[in-house]
Amino acid sequence: MRIGLVGAGRIGAFHAATLAALAAVEQVVITDAAPDRAEMVAKDLGAEFAPDVDSLLAMGLDGFVIAAATSAHADLIGKGLAARIPIFCEKPLAVDLAGTQAVVQAVEAGAVPVHIGFQRRFDFGYRKAAAAVKNGELGYIHTIRANTGDVSPPPAEYIPTSGGFFRDCNVHDFDALRFVTGREVVSVYATGANRGEAFFGEYGDVDSAAALLTLDDNTFVLVNGTRYNGAGHDVRMEILGSKGSLAVGLDDHTALTSAEAEVTFPAGPAHGTFMERFHPAYVAELTAFTEVVAGTREVPCTVRDALEAFRIAEACEISRRENRPVNLDEVGR
User: Which of 16, 55, 211, 255 fits a 20 to 30 Å CA distance from 185?
Assistant: First the structure.
């Protein structure tokens, strides 16, 4: 199959290389708002180059992958829908809640499959945790702890269009939480701080954040994250139940060491980036998309899933700014 990809930045180039290595993909066609960048990535991969999105969509594609800037997602999804080509889009759907709701409405009104890129759903650990919760192996779940820690912050120019810490970073934790538990968040209480570079505060953002979420079965969820986790890229989830507990991301690459005597775990080295941490999950995710394109699989992560994760992030941002608990019913469905 021929897969078109728009966006040749860090994640776009990574996705292009992953797609090019898949047995089901015969050719990858790449474009970008900066054509020179797309042409260079295409040349490196032996892929095709398209000068713009309209040209790309006219090149007989079987699937359309969107890895462009967040601000372009909604428009590009619209173009893919109009072309009636199955779509894979990196999160989020749009820069704000109203835009996200509009995309969901457009997608659900049509018949074009749209798969959203929340790669943790394809990670072995998260999938095993989801199965354990569903099967009742842990008893009832009373507490979950989830964290995302980046080694170092993104460049200053990224922050104004990122959507803020909860919408950009912890949104992955929120989607993984829904995936693992099968439950919905009913309320949040969130806070954040800026102890690093001043540019976060200049754009009204934070570089570290925390939130207490309550699920619809009264499970408590503690979510935190930071842009400054110098020990390594650290993504984990701990699920604590009445009969047992389970940890995702607790392996020899965990960016956490013990203060206890004679403990040598983890062996290391720690993961340096999210692409390193989740490389197998990204491969599984894009393999799943080729199956969606082929019509042999239902969409595994829908626009509705993206909306619900975004609603949680939106509630957390409101809570942080207004310093109060926020019920999810306050944030439009």
Answer: 255
Q: Scanning the structure block, which residue is given the tokens 């019920």?
A: 327
Render pLDDT for 122-174 as a digit per residue (tens, 0 to 9): 999 999 999 999 999 999 999 999 999 999 999 999 898 888 999 999 999 99
What is the three-class DSSP state of 79? helix
**Total number of residues shown for the chain:** 333
312 Rama class: left (phi>0) / alpha (psi -120 to 50) / beta: alpha
CB half-sphere exposure, 206, CA atoms < 13 A: 19
H or E, element range at 4: strand 2-6
Domains of the chain: 2-112 (3.40.50.720), 121-273+309-330 (3.30.360.10)
Contact of 164 with 225, CB cutoff 8 Å: no
- Predicted TM-score of the model (pTM): 0.96
Q: Are strands 234-241 and 27-31 parallel, antiparallel or unpaired?
A: unpaired
Q: How many CB atoms lie within 10 A of CB 47?
A: 22
Three-state DSSP state, 200? helix
